[in-house]
Amino acid sequence: MATVIENEVTKIIEVAGGTGPQGPKGNTGDQGIQGIPGVQSRTVVYTQTNKVTVNQANVETSITGTGIGTKTFPANNAEIGEVLVIKYTGKIYTDNTDTTLNLRFKLNGVVNYTVTNTLEKGLTGNKFEVEFRVLVANIVGTVATTYNSFGTLVWGSKTSAVNMTGRGDLQDGQFDPTVQNTVDITYQLSRVNGSNYIVVEGTTIEMLNPNNQ
User: Fold this and answer.
1) Residue by residue, what is the 3-state secondary structure of the chain?
2) What pLDDT shows up at residue 158?
3) Do 178 and 162 meet the contact criterion of CB atoms below 8 Å apart?
4) Which is more confidently placed, 139 or 167?
5) Could you tell me which of 17, 55, 148, 207 has the fewest CB atoms within 10 Å of its CB?
6) CA atoms within 13 Å, Cβ hemisphere of 104
7) Residue 165 CA to chain centroid, in angstroms?
8) Where is average pLDDT lowest: 16-25, 123-132, 151-160?
9) What are the tens digits of pLDDT across the range 20-40?
10) For the chain, which domains are there?
């Protein structure tokens, strides 16, 4: 009788152990680097294409001239934080007699900012550069408050550029944002002659808006 040898298959039963104690919490990783804010929107809205000569005594002369684009901003479009930037260059001629320059920044013909100063003497076509800024600081109804300032550089100036257009003082101004506003800058000289006048060219008007990124 044949002997049948049965090979028993040993079953390995895995017994799940009990849940062990929770391990210690890992350290929190370093905080990521904060993102860089978006670039401020900068739009050139006007570029002067002609030269303006200020050569009439005691006559207020617009120096922004004619050009491409617009110097008029629509109604109900101003925003807190935006900055109007006006830049222009030119040449200045002065003799050896005191001459007073009145600079006026206007919105719709109303003076928003003004400076009166005495020009440096003995300038013979010296180049100058001006940057004028108008910050819209607050808007309440029909009144928008602005902070105004400017800087001037006169190449080859014997003393200081402050004698060209003032000291760059901050001045507050106001305008009505509910109507369209036309921008202008005027010069007025107390006296002129063949050696005492100003030529302005290359005016640009830009709008900086931190809300449009």
Assistant:
1) CCCCCCCCCCCCCCCCCCCCCCCCCCCCCCCCCCCCCCCCEEEEEEEECCCEEECCECCCEECCCCEEECCEECCCCCCCCCEEEEEEEEEEECCCCCCEEEEEEEECCEEEEEEEEECCCCCEEEEEEEEEEEEEEEEECCEEEEEEEEEEEECCCCCCCHHHHCCCCCEEEEECCCCCEEEEEEEEECCCECCEEEEEEEEEEEEEECCCC
2) 56
3) no
4) 139
5) 17
6) 15
7) 20
8) 16-25
9) 566 566 565 555 455 445 546
10) 41-209 (2.60.120)
Cα 51 to the center of its chain, rounded Å: 24
- Which tokens hold the place of 207? 């709008």
In 3D space, the residue among 154, 150, 187 whose CA is nearest the CA of residue 53 turns out to be 187
Alpha-carbon distance of 22 to 44, in angstroms, equals 63
Specify the amino acid at residue 205: I
User: Tokens for 197?
Assistant: 């006048």
Nearest to 62 by CA among 116, 94, 106, 101: 106
